[in-house]
């Protein structure tokens, strides 16, 4: 069964109430002396940076009032895993896990509210409705918006961006109908989008203007290897070319390229980079470069205003990955809490699975450094799709990039981030075997040095995790709860499991037990109807009492059971629209899915009452066959959804895709056949 979306929530309280909560409804100027103590720290933007800041500040100073304001009208969620949810690799609801703010009277959260201006003199922010809120300190965590190329046609229907949950929901609804998708941008986001939109019957072309995929991270050899592996998975890749215009009358139909080619497209996804959201800061006169300029304490030009995350520019660098944003959030929280802290910049590190291929890069990039600035160590194993390149300067590791699985990767990325020394023995071992450390040290995470970062997103080290294990955290969930490790991209989950000494076991979907029971019963009854002869009519005629075969003899009862069956089928169909129409994304998806299956089960019951299990002849037999196929395929897909945590993810995904398609295909002829059936019944 399909993956679900996570629920939207409207703002939980009136902003006016929040003003009253913090300041009292009749604020007098005489109250000024006590006012500053009661003013909240206001955070604008509930993305990873804003949320990390809020969680950290609350942990450090629980008594300090804090107000988190976010323009997105939903609970905070894990943006990094949006593509996994879109691809069906994880449940949409799981994106919210671990991202909630603690319940506390001093902590306030206003979703769906946009800050439109900052009045620095009055120490207040202006909200979209015109309300104002005063702040003690203001933290800008406004992130970025997608960069949209300045070409005609980007506003046509069928053209999408991929930045937030709304975009992902729209793409999810679109995915079923798309046959030709063009993704503009062959960077991290473009590849993620292409991966997520992949289906067996969809033609996807990636267009990248530079000479290679992921040019910001990879060198030419690694990019060529990735290119091959992406193509082997059925995606088309065009490099050294770009879009000139998007064409279409009522919706996008084609993409015109600089080279003169025209690519037919019913869907275009723009993934051509991001632009930091600096408008608020700019309008209030704060110094701006590519982002909002900040010092080592993440302060902007105004000592009471901080900027963190993708909207901030530190030391000339604007970061576009989640780990630096989280790090900045933690540092700003410490500074505001009065704990000495300094942000010294981050080493950008990316590790992601593109389709089935691991791609990684951290630290210095060979093409963006002066010639001769770095020495290079290369390990190649083309037969197994492995390529690893280390950059070093003055005996220390400065960069790593490559393609293919590598057990030592988290440790190697950490070594780059720490600028660790690389000895001659290590160089020799790396060139020969692609390993930096002896096999005995790499085998178990528990054997890694305590300072090695295990979760790159949250910066949690092996030492911190081991302390948590020693303090009684014996499950991955407990480790995540205590340390925050694995709560962002999740790629370190196997490492946590290795540390706990247990293999990684995914958890069942919400409502799995009733789902399994209902789906198995529906499939079983449908299979029995198919295989067994129908319920016999009563053998001897009698005028005494009620005869149960009146169910199939009495015209009125037949009509009641027939229309009930049709009604149940239509209701089940309407419920399934929850997945296809983004606007219907309310309520938890698991509930909708279970209701859909419950209606399917009720429909099988109605079918049994209506037909007595007889398959019929002609159109009736066809109708019956298609209906039973619909139930069996849908039931099997639901059984799979309830049990897929026991299967290998790739296998589960393939099976689920096939069964869902069979379920959908079986539905299409039903309305016509049903029409014939009704006509035939009434005509005769
Ligand atoms: C699909 C996808 C996949 C990604 N994958 C990875 C990955 O694998 N690894 C990785 O490291 N990074 C990845 N990233 C990047 C990562 O998500 C970002 O680096 C991170 O989200 C930045 O966090 P932020 O809090 O600075 O900004 P954002 O996440 O952009 O959050 C900013 C928030 O502020 C809100 N806001 C903006 N202006 C206002 C206003 N005026 N008033 C109120 N609210 C406002 C916005 O609505 C938004 O919710 C991915 C991004 C996407 C979109």
Compose a concise summary of this entry.
By secondary structure, the protein is an alpha/beta fold. 40% of the residues lie in helices and 18% in strands.
Structural write-up:
This protein is of the alpha/beta class. The protein is 40% helix and 18% strand. A hairpin with a 2-residue loop joins strand 24 and strand 25. It starts with 14 loop residues before the first helix and ends with a helix. The structure holds flavin-adenine dinucleotide (FAD).
Q: Which keywords apply here?
A:
684 residues; alpha/beta; FAD/NAD(P)-binding domain; Enolase-like, domain 1; 4 domains; five-stranded parallel sheet; 22 helices; binds flavin-adenine dinucleotide
| Name of the CATH superfamily of the largest domain | FAD/NAD(P)-binding domain
Any idea what the CATH architecture of the largest domain is?
Answer: 3-Layer(bba) Sandwich
CATH class descriptor of the largest domain: Alpha Beta
Give the bound compounds. Answer: flavin-adenine dinucleotide
Strand order of the largest sheet: 3-2-1-7-19
Strand content: 15-25%
SS summary, helix count = 22
Q: Could you tell me the number of beta strands?
A: 27
């Amino acid at each position: 069964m399909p993956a679900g979306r996570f629920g939207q929530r409207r703002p939980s309280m009136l902003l006016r109430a929040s003003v009253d909560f913090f300041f009292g409804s009749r604020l007098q100027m005489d109250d000024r002396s006590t006012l500053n103590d009661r003013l909240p720290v206001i955070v604008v933007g509930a993305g990873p940076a804003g949320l990390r800041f809020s969680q950290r500040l609350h942990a450090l100073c629980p008594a300090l009032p804090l107000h988190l304001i976010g323009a997105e009208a939903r609970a905070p969620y894990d943006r990094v895993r949006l593509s996994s949810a879109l691809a069906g690799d994880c449940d949409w609801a799981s994106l919210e896990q671990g991202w909630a703010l603690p319940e506390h009277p001093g902590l306030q959260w206003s979703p769906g509210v946009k800050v439109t201006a900052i009045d620095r003199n009055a120490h207040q922010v202006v909200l979209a409705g015109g309300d104002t809120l005063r702040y003690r300190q203001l933290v800008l965590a406004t992130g970025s918006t997608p960069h949209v190329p300045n070409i005609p046609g980007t506003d046509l229907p069928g053209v999408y961006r991929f930045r937030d949950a709304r975009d992902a929901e729209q793409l999810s609804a679109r995915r079923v109908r798309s046959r030709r998708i063009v993704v503009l941008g062959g960077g991290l986001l473009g590849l993620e989008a292409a991966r997520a939109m992949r289906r067996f019957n969809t033609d996807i072309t990636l267009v990248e203007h530079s000479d290679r995929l992921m040019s910001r991270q990879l060198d030419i050899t690694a990019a060529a290897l990735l290119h091959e592996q992406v193509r082997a998975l059925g995606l088309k890749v065009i490099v050294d070319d770009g879009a000139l215009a998007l064409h279409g009358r009522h919706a996008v139909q084609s993409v015109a390229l600089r080279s003169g080619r025209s690519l037919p497209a019913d869907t275009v996804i723009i993934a051509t980079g991001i632009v930091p959201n600096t408008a608020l800061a700019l309008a209030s006169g704060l110094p701006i470069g590519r982002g909002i300029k900040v010092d080592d304490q993440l302060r902007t030009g105004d000592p009471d205003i901080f900027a963190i995350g993708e909207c901030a520019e530190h030391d000339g660098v604007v970061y576009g990955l989640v780990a630096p944003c989280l790090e900045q959030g933690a540092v700003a929280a410490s500074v505001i809490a009065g704990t000495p802290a300094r942000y010294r910049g981050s080493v950008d590190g990316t590790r992601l699975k593109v389709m089935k291929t691991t791609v990684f890069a951290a630290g210095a990039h060979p093409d963006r450094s002066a010639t001769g600035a770095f020495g290079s160590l290369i390990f190649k194993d083309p037969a197994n799709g492995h390529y690893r390149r280390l950059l070093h300067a003055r005996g220390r590791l400065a960069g790593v990039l490559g393609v293919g699985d590598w057990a030592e990767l988290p440790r190697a990325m950490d070594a780059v981030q720490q600028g660790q020394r690389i000895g001659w023995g290590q160089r020799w071992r790396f060139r020969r075997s692609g390993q930096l450390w002896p096999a005995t040290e790499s085998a178990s995470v528990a054997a890694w040095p305590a300072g090695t970062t295990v979760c790159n997103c949250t910066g949690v080290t092996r030492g911190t995790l081991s302390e948590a294990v020693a303090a009684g955290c014996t499950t991955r969930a407990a480790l995540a709860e205590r340390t925050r490790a694995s709560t962002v991209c999740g790629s370190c989950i196997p490492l946590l499991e290795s540390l706990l000494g247990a293999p990684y076991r995914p958890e069942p979907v919400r409502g799995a037990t009733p789902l399994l029971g209902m789906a198995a019963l529906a499939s079983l009854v449908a299979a029995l109807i198919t295989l067994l002869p129908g319920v016999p009519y009563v053998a001897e005629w009698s005028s005494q009492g009620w005869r149960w075969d009146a169910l199939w003899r009495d015209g009125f009862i037949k009509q009641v059971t027939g229309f009930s069956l049709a009604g149940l089928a239509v209701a089940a169909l309407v419920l399934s629209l929850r997945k296809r129409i983004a606007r219907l994304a309310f309520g938890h998806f698991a509930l909708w899915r279970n209701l859909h299956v419950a209606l399917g089960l009720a429909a099988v019951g109605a079918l049994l009452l209506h037909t007595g299990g007889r398959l019929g002849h002609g159109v009736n037999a066809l109708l019956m066959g298609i209906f039973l196929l619909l139930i069996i395929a849908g039931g099997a897909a639901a059984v799979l959804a309830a049990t897929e945590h026991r299967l290998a993810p790739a296998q589960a995904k393939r099976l689920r895709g096939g069964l869902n398609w069979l379920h959908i295909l079986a539905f299409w002829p039903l309305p016509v056949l049903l029409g014939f059936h009704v006509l035939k019944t009434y005509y005769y």
